[in-house]
């Protein structure tokens, strides 16, 4: 069926070096929460609350998972037999890395239609082709999260397509660890927080209405988080550490003019801005849960999929880092996961019928079994989440 809207706008044609899905890599995975046995003695000295790291009993239930699906019936008539009962999922940043691997994992089930929400139309089309996602299983729609106008346009285009929405995955991100000076979104927000948090905040707020309308029994809104935003882990204690402070920089517009470009009001640091943005992602998921889970029945989740050291996320890092980071994660921290494995994990959060609990930050242990992870104190601070929500609403023009 041809549901590709005519108004989709391809953005600039530039093909970056892409992380490829590597199905031959099957690594044991770091559990995402605390230091694994193998590295505990080597790394404990780097950590501030080591007691926290040793509390293994707090892992909660560990279950082996396989990807199953939560199909929606809405597509049945329009799409004909081939797509009978398919669910519709929007994945931002599906043109590379985790987003692409998740799109592939879901498309392979033949039970999902993937809306690849990407800033580079041609790159997304090529990416889908390169991993063998078949035409009837995806649609590329243009979305540039670094422009609020583009977010609003995307939502309009999606609505005009007539597709129902059963799941939204806020996955796209930028990481600018070597930037000396801040760069800005179209609306004048520091680029990492503007893209990773504010763009997704507006998108998710707008699309909640569409999710509500879905008649799927398992509608989900997922915002990808990370271990590096959680200071209750070793990885989260590698400087610079995430810290939103009292949000004074964000409240001032994050524009580097009359306010700092950093959420906490401090000096610009690209690596910290990314980690701060991930804290925002995890706080936003919980605030959505508190405000809307009961009313809407939508499941809100976040996750740390493991360290996918080969993705495009590190494209701006120095070449030495890009060379050493994958072996470091594979052989020393054991936190490494392949893009394919990480994609299967996120696909579980989208569609596994046993991951329906709302408000959870999922992680996986080294046997690839999912468990409910603990967030750091800051990333689970309900008062900060509320304040973040209110300030963000103002910045994106919802309040
Ligand atoms: C910072 O720099 C920027 O300054 C900052 O602004 C921000 O952008 C930040 O978060 C991003 O990056 C990058 C980084 C350099 O600086 C640091 O992280 C500082 C700490 C570096 C300390 C290095 C010490 C290495 C300790 C590793 C533990 C060793 C344990 C020994 C055990 C030996 C067992 C055999 O970072 C880099 O450029 C590289 C970082 C990647 C870590 C490199 C680790 C080296 C190990 C490489 C081994 C690979 C081979 C594996 C084979 C193992 C076989 C067993
Ligand atoms: P990639 O760089 O491979 O993927 C990021 C995606 O985001 C790309 O598709 C990119 O598009 C897209 N994107 C960036 N900016 C925008 C924008 N302005 N508008 C629309 N899309 C945009 O990185 P990963 O796959 O590693 O990252 C995916 C998610 O996983 C992120 O949320 C990241 O924080 C998280 N994560 C990653 C970990 C890792 O180890 N890699 C660990 C934990 C979490 P384009 O292809 O055009 O560049
Ligand atoms: Mg980190 C012990 C486990 C562990 C894990 C799971 C990660 C994940 N990292 C760990 C440890 C360490 N890292 C240690 C001991 C160091 C010092 C050598 C270290 C360094 C390091 C750097 C410089 N790590 C990094 C960087 C990055 O630039 C990445 C980053 O912070 O991006 C924000 C990164 C990461 N380490 C991870 C993960 C998942 C990342 C990718 C960032 C993310 O998506 O959150």
TrEMBL record:
Sections of the chain in a coiled coil: none
Cellular component GO terms held in the UniProt record: chloroplast
Top enzyme category: oxidoreductase
Keywords, alphabetical: Chlorophyll biosynthesis, Chloroplast, NADP, Oxidoreductase, Photosynthesis, Plastid, Transit peptide
Subcellular location: Plastid, Chloroplast
Chemical reaction(s) catalysed: chlorophyllide a + NADP(+) = protochlorophyllide a + NADPH + H(+)
Keyword presence, tRNA-binding: no
Role this protein plays: Phototransformation of protochlorophyllide (Pchlide) to chlorophyllide (Chlide).
Family membership: Belongs to the short-chain dehydrogenases/reductases (SDR) family. POR subfamily.
Protein name per Swiss-Prot or TrEMBL: NADPH-protochlorophyllide oxidoreductase
Species this chain originates from: Lactuca virosa
